[in-house]
């Protein structure tokens, strides 16, 4: 789409928004239900597109791309009336006689920019929130999984009016053009570096942003953990989508007394889970650039376990690195692939201190049987969200706001948090006219000041 077409698109959406029709609850519910029924009817097309881009199975596509969207839509449909209701709050004595209200109001015309790793989920989940909140939306999915991007555009653009919800496909150039326009909200999912570009562009128009970024998410494993369950959950969370998951455990900090047992069990479970293409248990690395990037992160001498690499099919075997420390290359940036570095610790304070030297992560996982350990880590490390004795699954609870902090992002979504991300809380004092005390009007006096202080309890 050319610049002028994008300008015309945003104008069209502004016009629709200003008719106030998108604010009606019935309209929101109808569009959300429509989106769900379209996604359901197009599941086969989406499975095919995802398979082309990732070699991903139907099972994984349903559980990691579609299921969350259906849950989010159902939650929004059943709660949108309640969420968008005007809320009465108390009024202080200084404002007596009056009533005070908070009116949740949609922000307007919103831009959603998606990342490539879960292209369906990361595109539609913010859109669901934007629609539930009463906005119009332009979605720019990631161009990297091109079959999925094409499919999303075809599905949306042939079923929704352009003035309400439209998909614009493209890469850096199109996104740059989109970012020059004045939006009422920008919701971005992607890397820290592009997050900065988005934030700067939004600042030009003072547009509010939600930034869903990444980082190095640690998993702490202490000697008191339930080892078999811990290994199951780490292996699943790490190698799901071949590690191309923003909330995958990036690295493990294991207590040194159980290191050998832990590594041995990791290897056993990886073999048992059989991460191969032949049984559709695994996905390919998204492109050659990422494949080579990941290969370059491995230090051969620290490989504890790996498998046969195949560049042609972009098969990258689950790879464990041991005896890793914070100065290794693998610890420099987010891995975003199927390499699991294992570091050890003896002293929890030192381990926490070392993790805190890195940027605030998107997630943190704590595998332990001791509640004191859990409390310490939760109290001392700042991170977006996470789990105790599990990995990744916190994303599947719509009651938990999802988002980063510091370098891993700003703002939250999913469920009510998503609704709030696309909503302005308009505060209104509704004052009665039967009383108009003269105390606040000039001419002022010491007596008036005394009264004001008495009213304020100051
Ligand atoms: P990316 O930042 O390269 O791309 C994200 C989007 O930005 C794409 O739509 C792309 O077209 C656009 N883009 C890329 N370069 C741009 C530029 N120079 N100017 C304007 N727009 C540009 O990210 P990615 O590679 O798609 O995703 C990987 C990153 O996203 C990882 O860091 C991962 O942790 C993070 N991520 C975060 C979440 C989350 O929910 N917090 C989810 C998925 C991925």
TrEMBL record:
It holds the Pfam family Aldedh. It comes from the Bacteria. The active site is at 212, 246. InterPro entries: Ald_DH/histidinol_DH, Ald_DH_C, Ald_DH_CS_CYS, Ald_DH_CS_GLU, Ald_DH_N, Aldehyde_DH_dom, Aldehyde_DH_NAD(P). The keyword Oxidoreductase applies. One of its GO terms (molecular function) is aldehyde dehydrogenase (NAD+) activity. One of its GO terms (cellular component) is cytoplasm. Keywords: NAD, Oxidoreductase. The keyword Cell inner membrane does not apply. Residues 3-428 form the Aldehyde dehydrogenase domain. One of its GO terms (biological process) is aldehyde metabolic process. Belongs to the aldehyde dehydrogenase family. This is Aldehyde dehydrogenase. It comes from Brumimicrobium oceani.
């Amino acid at each position: 789409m050319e610049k002028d077409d994008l300008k015309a698109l945003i104008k069209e959406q502004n016009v629709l928004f200003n008719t106030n029709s998108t604010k009606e609850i019935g309209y929101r519910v109808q569009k959300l239900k429509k989106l769900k029924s379209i996604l359901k009817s197009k599941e086969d097309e989406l499975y095919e597109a995802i398979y082309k881009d990732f070699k991903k199975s139907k099972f994984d596509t349903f559980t990691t791309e579609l299921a969350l969207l259906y849950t989010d839509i159902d939650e929004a449909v059943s709660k949108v009336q309640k969420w968008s209701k005007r809320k009465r709050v108390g009024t202080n004595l200084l404002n007596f006689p009056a009533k005070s209200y908070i009116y949740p109001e949609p922000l307007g015309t919103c831009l959603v920019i998606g990342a490539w790793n879960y292209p369906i989920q990361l595109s539609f989940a913010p859109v669901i929130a934007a629609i539930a909140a009463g906005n119009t939306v332009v979605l720019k999915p990631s161009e990297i999984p091109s079959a999925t991007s094409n499919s999303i555009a075809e599905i949306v653009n042939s079923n929704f009016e352009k003035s309400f919800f439209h998909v614009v496909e493209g890469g850096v150039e199109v996104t740059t053009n989109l970012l020059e326009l004045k939006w009422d909200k920008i919701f971005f999912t992607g890397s820290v570096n592009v997050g900065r570009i988005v934030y700067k562009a939004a600042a030009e128009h003072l547009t509010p942003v939600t930034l869903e970024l990444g980082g190095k998410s640690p998993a702490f494993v202490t000697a008191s953990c339930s080892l078999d369950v811990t290994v199951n959950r780490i292996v699943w969370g790490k190698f799901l989508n071949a590690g191309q998951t923003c909330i995958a455990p990036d690295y493990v900090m294991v207590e040194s007394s159980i290191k050998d047992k832990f590594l041995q069990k990791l290897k056993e479970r990886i073999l048992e889970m059989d991460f191969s293409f032949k049984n559709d248990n695994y996905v390919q690395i998204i492109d050659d650039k990422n494949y080579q990037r990941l290969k370059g992160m491995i230090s051969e001498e620290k490989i504890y376990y790996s498998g046969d690499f195949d560049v042609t099919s972009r098969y990258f075997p689950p790879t464990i690195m041991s005896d890793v420390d914070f100065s290794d290359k693998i610890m420099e940036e987010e891995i975003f692939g199927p390499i699991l570095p294992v570091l050890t610790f003896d002293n929890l304070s030192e381990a926490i201190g070392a993790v805190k030297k890195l940027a605030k992560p998107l997630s943190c996982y704590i595998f332990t049987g001791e509640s004191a350990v859990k409390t310490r880590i939760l109290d001392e490390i700042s991170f977006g969200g996470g789990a105790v004795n599990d990995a990744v699954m916190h994303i599947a609870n719509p009651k938990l706001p999802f988002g980063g902090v510091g370098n891993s992002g700003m703002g939250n979504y999913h469920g009510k948090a998503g609704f709030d991300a696309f909503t302005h809380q308009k505060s209104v004092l509704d004052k009665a006219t039967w009383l108009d005390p003269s105390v606040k009007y000039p001419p002022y006096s010491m007596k008036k000041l005394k009264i004001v202080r008495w009213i304020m309890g100051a």
